[in-house]
Design brief:
alpha/beta; Isopropylmalate Dehydrogenase; 17 strands; 18% strand; globular; binds nicotinamide-adenine-dinucleotide
């Protein structure tokens, strides 16, 4: 049965149909391994089963249908609403856009959600990686990712440059030109989603990250629109740092602050425990989420989700690592934990908790795939499929 979405609520039957994009490269290893873990947790927690519906996208679709992203696959995503996805290769030939970016734009998946926390035992570069526990909400449709760019020397680029000169700006004639649109609508809905998450999950604070000191009408406006929506719609649940004036935060309230992007990178290194939910623009969020994941050594196991109103795609944040494809050696952690996010979204939290427990124990036992094993003295090397089996065993 299909999952439905009504008035901001996901309506989930006991045996839901969920889309599955296996993905290219190591997708054939990590995605089936993750499915095994998710199925085992769902069965153990609820005695239920997910009906996985394969959606063919990427190289497999190119082979079968001569198209990387066939129309009927897009229809399936629209109908199924919730999808778990392995990594997809971006073809290098000119004229191809990233399939991931296309999916985000086609379905208006405006929230890119990346939780970053430490799993004890993971080799991490920080002294106290356990202090990092943030959920980053990155705006996913605007900013320099809107794809509005003109190549140097083209008539369009020259026209834009001429217009800019008319307005008194200095732009060299041999420039490529890109446009960075940031809207009130796009900013407010992203900050609203971050705040709803913070309230629902009883998180301590929300930080808006921007570069408004330099880009006032885009990045600075993001912060102001964000503050507006928080003041208007969450006023009884939050306190702005500026209004606190050194006093204690009243019990049960969420602290709201904002930080300039460059300072935020320092802050996350120096005082990670002061940050909790982060809402930011597209480019800042791209850099910040990878940097945060690296801090906890978790780039290979970092999960992610692209969420819109009524459609959600949960995906590995790493790529398709073609040289390891089909060798049953890649780390399935990123897809497994994306599955955890998926289970949380549909409200199956007991199954999500079982998987977290299984992952924590497996990594703590130093039973790990090659990427961690080479950094962990005394670790036991396992294959991708064996790692999944260990996680299942450790759910007991
Ligand atoms: P990559 O993430 O595929 O590989 C980077 C490095 O990380 C490689 O050394 C690889 O061996 C290692 N690695 C990645 N995932 C791993 C895992 N699960 N376990 C162990 N090691 C892992 O990045 P890339 O080489 O830049 O990109 C390859 C392809 O993937 C490109 O076509 C790129 O466009 C695409 N890509 C897709 C996504 C996505 O689908 N979300 C994200 C990034 C890149």
């Amino acid at each position: 049965m299909n999952i439905n979405y009504n008035n901001g609520q996901w309506i989930v039957p006991d045996n839901p149909d969920i889309g599955l994009i296996i993905g290219d490269g190591i997708g054939i290893d990590v995605t089936p391994a993750a499915v095994k873990v998710i199925d085992a947790a769902v069965k153990k927690a609820y005695g239920r089963a997910i009906n996985w519906v394969e959606i063919v996208v990427g190289e497999k679709a190119e082979k079968q249908f001569g198209n990387l992203l066939p129309q009927h696959s897009l229809e399936q995503i629209k109908q199924l609403r919730v999808v778990l996805k392995g990594p997809l290769t971006t073809p290098v030939a000119e004229g191809h856009r990233s399939l991931n970016v296309t999916l985000r734009q086609t379905f208006d998946l405006y929230q890119c959600v990346r939780p970053v926390r430490y799993f004890p035992g993971v080799p991490a570069p920080m002294k106290e990686p356990q202090l990092v526990d943030v959920v980053i909400f990155r705006e996913n449709t605007e900013d320099v990712y809107a794809g509005i760019e003109w190549e140097k020397g083209t008539p369009a680029a020259q026209e834009i440059i001429a217009f800019l000169k008319l307005k008194g700006f200095t732009v060299r004639d041999d420039s490529g030109v890109g446009i960075k649109p940031i809207s009130e609508f796009g900013s407010k809905r992203l900050v609203r989603a971050a705040a709803e998450f913070a309230v629902k999950n009883k998180r301590k604070n929300i930080t808006l990250v921007h570069k408004g000191n330099i880009m006032k009408y885009t990045e600075g406006a993001f912060q102001q629109w964000g503050y507006d929506v928080l003041r208007k719609e969450f006023g009884d649940k939050i306190v702005f740092e500026e209004d606190l004036a050194g006093n204690e935060l009243p019990a049960g309230k969420i602290l709201v602050k904002h930080r300039i992007a460059d300072s935020m990178f320092q802050q996350l290194l120096l005082r990670p425990d002061e940050y909790d939910v982060i809402a930011t623009t597209n480019l800042n969020g791209d850099y910040l989420s990878d940097a945060a994941a690296a801090q906890v050594g978790g780039l290979g196991i970092a999960p992610g989700a692209n969420i819109g109103d009524g459609i959600a795609i949960f995906e590995a944040t790493h790529g398709s690592a073609p040289k390891h494809a089909g060798l049953d050696k890649a780390n399935p952690g990123s897809v497994i934990l994306s599955g955890v996010m998926m289970l949380e979204l549909i409200g199956w939290t007991k199954a999500a908790e079982l998987i977290i427990k299984g992952m924590e124990r497996t990594i703590q036992n130093k039973t790990v795939t090659y990427d961690f094993e080479r950094l962990l003295p005394g670790a036991k090397l396992v294959k991708c499929s064996q790692f999944a089996e260990e996680v299942i065993k450790n759910m007991e």
